[in-house]
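Example complex used in Figure S2.
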Amino acid sequence: MGQNITKPVDDITAQLDNWSISIRLDKREAAATIHEYLKSFINDFSTDTLIKYTLLESRFYLMQKDLVNSAVAIDNAKTYLDHFHDIHRHYLHLAEGILFYDEKRYQDALHCFEKAEKYLNQLQDSVEIGEFHLRKAMTYYFLDITTLSALHAERAIEALKPYKTFEFLLARAEMLQGMNYMDLQDFELSEEHLHKALISYKNIDNQYFITTTNLNLGLLYVQRELPEAAIRYLEEARKNKQERIHLKILYLLADSYWKTNHPSKAMEAYTEGFQKSIDTDDLTMKWEFAMLHKKFEDRVNYESVWQEGIEYFRKVNDLFNVRLYSKELALHYTETKQYELATRYYLLASI
Amino acid sequence: MKKVVFSLILIGTIIVSSVVGYAEDNKTAEKKGDLGTVIFSLNLTK
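Predicted assembly (397 residues):
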């Protein structure tokens, strides 16, 4: 009888460990099988096991991109808050942060990651620590707090470098660091990190991130005012028709083709992108395409459309685009000696 | 003279506060590059 009681407990602990490993290695089928198995014992779990189970369940649903059930699992975990150890608190805030990040609520995500960081010293696993710094660095990147993003990306690289099995995570940290150096205008270091990432993604044959890195290299060469080089990487990225970033690729391609005096190719990329932004109801990209077109093809309406576009970005709190387009418009007003308008847009560029 | 200085400081404070307040409400900073999702999966293909 003693055996009957102890065996399932040992088994459940082992299955929880297997589940955790399956989730981290993205073994979706194995993770789903273990989930079903564990669910059948849920009424027999101790409080500690239940907390571990619900926190892991939130990661399990995240892996499947099921954000609703992931949030439900977090809420379930919170009902045991009084019994939480520090390490549970770390995983809870981490999971909350990931959810906010996924919804592009970067400020909220950062608050959660800061709470989780308080308990980071409880973790023993270097890779998990590296993953944490990578997530926080990604959040700082989108909040445009570049120096802190670079600092956390460096800590992620240091933590992940010794582990060949986790080359994928190291590549993501290298890619992020390349983007940070791009924002810091250190283009040589940016190029170095982005190429390191590209080599790693090719090593592990990850087509998805090869495309992402090609987009980012394209962006680097756009910023370095080398549109011919940008086109090479962007055309490579365009081939995979990766839904999530396809509009960004088309935008940069249209820009680069206009700059290299290939208006018909530019119009082709612009038309595809503008139409797609309308079809998918992506208002931000719709404005960006419209503004790009006015800049190169319809100068009569350039000022008015850019003013309206910047107003739209202010309305939706897209401060990155407010700064980006205001700076360019301010330069235009300075060149055309419209100093009052230039001042207005320089101020907006500095928010 | 004192009134003018005070008014300038007040206006400056209001401008700075509104700018800082606006920046703190930042939710959607869409950059031109891409980092992929924050959900790390080692075999992520889409």
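Residues 8-27, 42-46 of chain B have pLDDT under 50 and may be disordered. Residues 25 and 36 of chain B are 24 Å apart (CA to CA).
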